[in-house]
Amino acid sequence: MSIPNEPSFRESVELMFNRAVALMDLKPGLENKIRVCNATYTVRFGVRLRGHIHTFTGYRAVHSEHMEPVKGGIRFAPNVHQDEVEALAALMTFKCALVETPFGGSKGGLCIDPREWDEHELEQITRRFAYELAKRDLIHPSQNVPAPDMGTGEREMAWIADQYARMNTTDINARACVTGKPLNAGGIAGRVEATGRGVQYALQEFFRYPEDIAIAGLDGTLEGKKIIVQGLGNVGYHAAKFLSEEDGSLIVGIIERDGALTNEKGLNVEAVRAWIAEHGGVKGCPEGDFVEDGASILEAPCDIMIPAALEGVINLSNAERVQAPLIIEAANGPITAGADEVLRKKGCVIIPDLYANAGGVTVSYFEWVKNLSHIRFGRMGKRQEEAQHLLLINELERLSADKELGWELSPDFKARFLRGAGEIELVRSGLDDTMRTAYQAMRAVWHGRDDVEDLRIAAYLVAIDRIASSYRAKGL
Ligand code: NAD
Q1: Which residues bind NAD(+) (predicted)?
Q2: What is the pLDDT of residues 371-408, one digit of tens each?
Q3: Shortest CA distance to 158 belongs to which of 171, 168, 172, 147?
């Protein structure tokens, strides 16, 4: 999406990068090396559909190969263009460094509106795109590993994995060529929910620091906080679901393509999602009041705003009127560089995209490791862990049978303690740890340096410093 009178998405990311490097002491050559996108491949291919040959345009940008493979989603949207995939690839580089996943940054896109094609047509198109990328090693377990993004999901990833396997019949690691696959095709438990889950963990970590909460002018916990979510797709739906069901937050607004729904008492996220699945939008949904001009709800009062749809939605045309004191960027680039400045001046705290939506790439990393190790997480240790716990339970039960001690185990303790960790528990634990550790690294810079005003610049500083170290280690 391009916004009149504002820098493009890629320029916006560069402006943020420039603000950060101005505070660093990098050699100018290295600074530029980290800034630029290494390469972008454009492909145009034809597919015979409905009796005609249709030409499609796709991209795969590789921003930085300081670590390989490079990693980043593939987006299916009608307005995908080179500038956008390069901006997204740069964000991937910084994101991977910030959450310590050992990848460089990449991103891909195909100019297509997936809703215009039937499933078997989409499969043909996706396979052909995958073929074009794989034959140039732009899909490869050790060089370039895509994942889902806007307009793509498990289904498309399964087609890509299968296409790669057909072209590389003896590659034992073929499944590691793409992440976000269905569980039965080499995927990992918890990948679908991962980005939204990461948004939840990021907010939980933020709310562990009263000092940070106070900077946003808020207090207390996530319970009862009023949240507005834009985009009830993969990321927005999971974030809204977990925050409302597990943390007691109220989803007071949901903004979708056709308008918004509001309800001060809190919307039922599952019911709204089901309505959208059936009717294609939020209009007419009885869960809340419908507002035709959906984007106006970005300006409505709330405690936390979660833009989880697309880039550039908070820009110079509306930033001044945005009231949320805390914004967590679940989407990539939802706030332009200009709007970022306006919001900062107003005292709004922004939890930046390169941190906030890193849950997806984190669990993709776990999936890639699982594919390379050819074994499900938890398979070796789960029962051993349970056996150890059983020993302890038996001993506790023996002691509590002693009436003189007067001990009693709480009713569900045994069942809960007895369960060893399976794949989903391990994935969530690894994701939670990653989100906590990365937040702590950012906030140490945010609070530790007088010249760092905001979390975004803190995140960039942590990430760029790590990337610079890898380049230096390579002799650059
Ligand atoms: P998705 O396609 O599943 O969902 C996008 C949602 O936004 C849809 O419900 C769509 O109807 C809605 N939407 C589109 N245009 C809108 C508009 N103008 N106003 C309001 N709603 C609108 O996509 P997703 O995977 O949830 O990705 C959303 C954002 O999160 C993107 O910026 C993406 O880059 C980012 N992201 C996704 C992942 C992931 O794992 N899927 C990981 C990191 C970042």
Answers
A1: 195, 234
A2: 999 999 999 999 999 999 999 999 988 888 887 887 88
A3: 147
Is 241 labelled a binding residue? no
Ligand 1: which atom is nearest the Cα of residue 358?
43
- 426: domain CATH number is 3.40.50.720
pTM above 0.90, yes or no: yes
Question: What is d(CA 299, CA 20) in angstroms, rounded to the nearest whole number?
Answer: 28
Give the pLDDT confidence score for residue 408 in this predicted structure.
80
Candidate from 256, 272, 276, 292 with most ligand 1 atoms within 8 A of CB, to mutate: 256
Let me know whether 313 and 458 are in one domain.
yes
- Is 414 in the active site? no
Q: How many CB atoms lie within 10 A of CB 183?
A: 14
Q: How many domains does the chain have?
A: 2
Range of the domain at 448: 189-378+421-476
Whether 23 has a pLDDT exceeding 60, the answer reads yes
Instruction: Provide the pLDDT for residue 221.
Output: 98
Considering the domain architecture, whether residues 215 and 321 belong to the same structural domain is answered as: yes
Atom of ligand 1 nearest to the CA of 311: 32
- Say if residue 263 carries a ligand binding annotation: no
**Measuring from atom 33 of ligand 1, which residue has the nearest CA?**
331
Is residue 6 exposed (0-12), middle (13-18) or buried (19+ Cβ within 10 Å)?
Answer: middle
* pLDDT number for residue 77: 97
Residue 390 maps to a domain: no
Annotated catalytic residue within 33, 107, 265, 370: 107
226 and 86 together in one domain: no
One domain for residues 180 and 198:
no
Nearest-CA residue for atom 4 of ligand 1: 233
Q: Which residue in the block uniquely carries the two structure tokens 């929910």?
A: 193
Helix (H), strand (E) at residue 235: helix 234-246
Task: Identify the residues whose C-beta falls under 6 Å from ligand 1.
Answer: 148-151, 195, 230-236, 255-257, 294, 308-310, 330-332, 357, 360
